[in-house]
Amino acid sequence: MTLQERAKRFVDNGNPRDEVELLAECVRARNLDGLAATQRLFEDMYGGITYNFEMKAPAAACLICWGKEGIKALVEGARRTPASKNNSITLQLLSAVAGGKIPTLFMSFVTAEIVMVLRPLLDEPDVRTFARQQLTEYMISFPDDDDASMAVGGVFQQLAIANDNASAVRELFGALASRWLTIGKPTLASYEDLIRAYRDEEPQFQAFFEKVPQLLEPFASLVWPTPDLHGAKKPDFVIKRADGTYLIVEIETPGKTLITNSLQSSAQLTEAITQAMQYRSFLLERFQEAKTHFPEFRDPDCMVVLGLERELSSEQRRALALENQNRRQIQIVGFDWIAERAERILQNMISANIAVRPLRMI
Fold first, then answer.
1. 278 with 261: CB under 8 angstroms?
2. Is residue 354 part of a domain?
3. Which residues of the chain have a pLDDT value below 70?
4. Distance CA 87, CA 78 (A)
5. Domain stops at, among 158, 181, 204
6. Whole-prediction pTM
7. Closest to 47 in 3D by CA, of 98, 97, 90, 13
8. Mind listing the pLDDT tens digit for each residue in 126-153?
9. 304: alpha, beta or left, given left = phi > 0 and alpha = psi -120 to 50?
10. Coil, strand, or helix at residue 357?
11. Which strand ranges, in their side-by-side order, compose the sheet holding 301-305?
12. Which residues of 101-126 are buried (b: 16+ CB within 10 A; e: fewer)?
């Protein structure tokens, strides 16, 4: 009988006392059969019995014995069966492995033999970095903030019970911060759907950016949509960044033309640039008054969002790049560029690894 078959039999009607030996055999085997069996023992809800945590937790801890493959199996099981206990166990273990120490509660469930396998893995930088990446990606993948908050709230409390889990708490907090500092894949998918369905309807994008202003400026700290400037000038957005600088954003629609076939700025682009610069001039002319409405106001940058860069030819892309190089304090981008930047930021946050490389040019 394979280890997977034995795991299925245990889930169906096994005695909890038999799990320790079954897990030990899986870890000794350290093969795909053992990995799949251990994943099954973690993932299954055991008919919803109250104390299923005591059967799930040791299996989850044992998954780490497979290193990166085991960490992937842990996350895969939690995503496939997204019950609250699976979420909680996965967040606890990923945080702990990233911090280099599995909580005592989990270690108390497994044998000394398994602990001997686990401990060296927690000292491997690659394993800890991989756990950190998986933790951030898993945190970002929660459908909404309410789900994430509920899952994380309980885990913080559980980790706080032990005095030696400060590193795990720090890792969990960092992953939660990453979720709120980045745009997740569901939001990016909704944005792409909007581009396809409403190419020529600016109000749809105005409403979307009001809900997710980080798309326009990843470091936005204060956002004013269509601020009423004496009833005369109404930029689409005025944004204060986290570093105190300001940005005026003029949005158009994805269906408008950025660069013509003759490699010139389109009339639509020229008009949008003029509007953005007029808003800037209007505020600068009333600088003292602007400071009363916009805290610590300073000379703002401008950005125009119009058209789709992916629809440009290589020559048109070069013309757009040249247009940006020749202008000061204004950036011209397509609606798809906004999404591509958010995707790059998301991937960098998930990787959570800043490379420091010396360079010497001879």
1. no
2. no
3. 162-164, 180-182, 230-232, 349-359, 361-362
4. 6
5. 181
6. 0.63
7. 13
8. 999 999 989 988 988 887 778 888 888 8
9. beta
10. coil
11. 220-225, 237-241, 246-251, 301-305, 330-333
12. bbbebbbebbeeebeebbeebbeeee
Q: How far apart are alpha carbons 64 and 74 in whole angstroms? A: 8
Domain end, chosen from 131, 146, 181, is at 181
Closest to 60 in 3D by CA, of 46, 75, 49: 75
- What length is written for the chain? 362
**Beta strand segments in 274-358, E:** 301-305, 330-333
Statement to judge: residues 106 and 226 lie in one domain = no
Helix, strand and coil in the chain, % to nearest 5: 65, 10, 30
Domain that holds residue 230: 185-348
Amino acid, res. 62: C
> pLDDT, tens digit, for every residue of 188-231?
889 999 999 999 999 999 999 999 999 999 888 999 999 987 66
Rounded to whole angstroms, what are the CA distances from 17 to 14, 60, 85?
8, 17, 21
Q: Note the maximum CA span of the chain.
A: 82
Residue type, 70: G
* Domains identified in the chain, total number: 2
CATH number at residue 295: 3.40.91
- 89 within domain boundaries: yes
